Every structure is written in C-alpha cells, then in structure tokens.
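Summary for the funding panel

The consortium committed to producing paired sequence-structure records for every protein in the target list. Below we show the first two records in order, beginning with the earlier of the two.
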Amino acid sequence: MASVRKRTWTTPSGETKTAWVVDYTDSRGDRQRKHFPNEKAADAFRISIEGQIQAGIYRPDANKLTVKHACEAFLAHCEGRNQRDERMTRKMLVVYRGHIINHILHPENGVGAWKLSQLSARAIGEFRDRIRTAGVSVPTTRKVLSTLHGVLEFAISQDWVATNTARRIRVIGPRGEGSERIVPPSKEDIRSIIDAADEDLRLMLIFAASTGARAGEQWATRWRDVDLDKCELRISHRVDAYGEEGAPKSSAGVRTVPLSAQLVSALKACKVKSKFSKDEDLIFANRRGAHVGHDNFIKRQFLPLFDIGCRVKRFNWHGLRHFAISMWIEAGLTPKTVQTFAGHASLQVTMDRYGHLFPSDDHKRAMDGIAKQLFK
C-alpha cells in the first residue's frame, strides 16, 4: 500500500532540508511519490490514498488534468463520432461546443482551470449557482450541466476520474414550473390557416396536422416512406438544421402512422404533378429537390399566413403536432396508441404533456360514487 518516510537532503548551496514523503503504488501498478512539509500532512494523505486505492476510485490523472483538458478531449471524441456517423449530429456537436466555450470554460463563472480531482458535487453546485446568477435561464443551465455530465462520463471512460460528480446536481426552477398545460390550436384556427394557404403549403399543413410528425421528420419523408395503398406513413428519419439526415430522437421515433383517405388522395394528386416523384425523392422538396430549410420556410411561408387576413392568434409550427395528438385523443385512441403514433420515448412523456386532454368521465363517476358513500 502506501508508506511514509522522512527525507533529508542538502541543497547545492549547502542548506539542509527535510520533507515527509509518501510512496505508494497506484491501481495501474505505477509507483507514485508525493512530498509534504510535515508528518501529519503526509500521514493524512496516506490514509486518504490507501482508502481510494482500496475502494478502486483512485485515478492519478485526476490530480494532473484540468476540466478544460477533459472538455477538449470530449469535443475531439464527439467530432470523431460525427465523422464516423456514430449517433452524433453536427447540431449536437455545435450545441456541446457552445455549452463548453460559453459556460463551462467561462473565464469568470466556469470551472475550466479546475483539476478534475477538485470538481466535487459542491463545486458543480456552486458553478450552477454562478451561471444562474449571471442570468442563464433554468432550461439552459440544465442543458449545460447535462453537457458537463457527458464530459465527466467521457473522463470516466478514459480512467481520468472514477465517479461522475455532476450526476445528482439539480437545477431548481420557479414555483409552478411544469404546471402549464399544452393548449393545441383549435379546429377553427387550423381550418382558417389551411384555407389561407396556397395548394402546396396547404398539403404541408394538412400532413403535419394529421400525422403529428415533427418538422425534421416531415421534411425528411420520401415517397418510399408512404404506402398509398395501405394508407400508412413510415417515419424512420429526420433532418437537422444543417440538412443532415439521421435517426429520430429516440428508438420510439421509428413508427408507422395511419393516414386518412383524404390525405392519401391529396398525396396521390401531389405525386402526379411533382417533378420529384421517384421513391427516393422527398415529398416536400425545395425547388432543387433538396430538403426544405425549416427556418426560411417558417419566415417566408408559414408566418405570413397570420398576416394576410387570417385572424388567428399566432402559434408555431410545432402547434400542428400538438393539434394532431389532441385529435387522436378526442377520437378515443388509448394513451398507449397515442404514445406510439407520437413517437414519445415513454408513456410518461405522453401523459405529462397531454394527460389533461384525455376524457375524465370515469374519474368523475368515481368521485360521484365516493361522495354518495360519504355524504348520504
């Protein structure tokens, strides 16, 4: 294990010096040595290091490497994954880099200069509080800590640290956070928007409001993904802001959604007129047959609908997805079916967001029965 010994030596100038040395062998079998000014400090370190080695949590690099070094190595790792197409999109890489440069390595509020061994749960909590005090929002702070968590997980994989001290750090939001319920656009609003759109835009709106596809999923849909005979849509890809296609947000995002006869009829008519009608062609392509640029599309085509006499309160494109899911619920689909068609990772996500939209007649009858028993 570790041993403590006193060392005395003479400097070139003839001065005699004394120090206490701790010699130990780390978990990799490498000999290590650390000097201390007195026996008490050396013995305290010996006890600590023996405990860490015995517990299997000692990592010599933690005392040498900084958080900045770990962040840079993590980004290099992510860049490699992106190049090898290993579930790392360019957008994710840009987000990680932004969190690291703007927050984690911030010269005043960040922790970049800290050694990995110094990054305790308390240190991360204080980092969280500093960026919140600096004006960073609750959602962004949570994302920054999630990125730091990823950096430390990478550090664990490199044997630089043994534990992820960011694992249980929470960001407390304001009172009532999360209590706001999703309110989808009304049928009248959707009808007004569709009526105000031209033929091509009308099909895009109807598709989104019927299938519940996310924007990136809709813009990545090709003719081969639609079975016009079985009236089914197979969602298996999405496109990001850089025009790069990849898998949906989660494995649950790969799904089959039934299509109405009206939507199938409209898609058939569109395919006949479109110059991009091959199986590999995008259904909703730009003039060059490439992916629709979502931001430009919203600014130039979708938002102007609210300004051309359509007296509807503005909602964002994702509101069409909320509308589709609300219609499934109104039609009596079970929560599990709604989860499947929506591509949610879990039923909990579906119920947290849309649970208030499910009919509550059974709940009311139960309460009436309880009341009759108690208050006769």
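The next record, for a separate protein in the list, is shown here:
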Amino acid sequence: MMVPLSARSGGQGEGATPPLAKELASLLQGKKLDVVAARLDGDTFVAAMLIPGSELLVVSAKYSAPALINEKILNRKYREAYMDLSTASVADSKLLVEDLKADGLRAEKQKDGFDIVTRGSAQPTHFNGEWKKQNMSQEAYMKAFQDAETAYQAMLRALVAELKKAG
C-alpha cells in the first residue's frame, strides 16, 4: 500500500532537520559569520556556508590531510576549510546538501523550490516529491530522504556544537 509522503514524513514532508538548520542559521547570523566548519568524526569533516535569505550549503567529506583541515578549524579559518572540503576532499566520501531557505530537508517540493542532496559522484537527489521523474520507486525515494535526513542531522549537530564552543 502506498502512503502519501505527507503522512509518512510528518505533515509536509518534513523531518527532524528543520530546527537544527534554523538554529545553525541563527547562530551564524548572530556571530556575523557566513561559514563554519567542524570535525564530524575521525577524518571526516563538515562545513557550511549560509547565503542569507537563500540557502544553506553543507558539505561533509573525508579529507586526505586531516591534520591540515583540523588546524584550519582550530584557528577558525572556516572559509578555507569549506573551500577545501568542497574541492579537495575524497570524492566518494562527499555529501553535499543544498538546503533551500536554510530550513531543513523536506521530502516534498515547497512552493518556491526544493532541497538537493548529492552523494559522491552520484546523480543528485531532488527532494521535490517527484520520485518517478528520478527513476525511483516511492520506497527508494523515502529511503533516500531518511538517509539524507540522518546524515544531515549529524552534520548540523557538529556545526552547531562548533559555533557554541567557539563562543
């Protein structure tokens, strides 16, 4: 039996990331920053760039020289860390979240756009409720959304923690 997206994902195709994304955006704006970076775990790092009123671009990836990027984070050279993760990371480990409106992931298209998640070199997944146009079943689409939601939560938590400890 197929269950409508809105019923399966809590109303408007919304997961648990909206409050975290909004908190991150608020912390960045409060500290007059547009970029932040943090260690996620081991040699995996995460960085985000806020484009106020537009979107939150968040990337996580393994980095071949973890000490180098960790030093940039410790010295609060967040923009450099963001650029490194965006361009010089281990490609297959990369996860890029394009969070339209910096308000968390939504499984369904919003009136003015949709969120996009790209893993490694795979095709981007457009969270617009149109799984058929992406050659996916509804189940595969919802699994992709849940996987993205889980990963994005961890990314946002690490970034919020970094901003809170940075004082």
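Regarding this second record: The chain is about 40% helix and 20% strand. Residues 1-12 have pLDDT under 50 and may be disordered.
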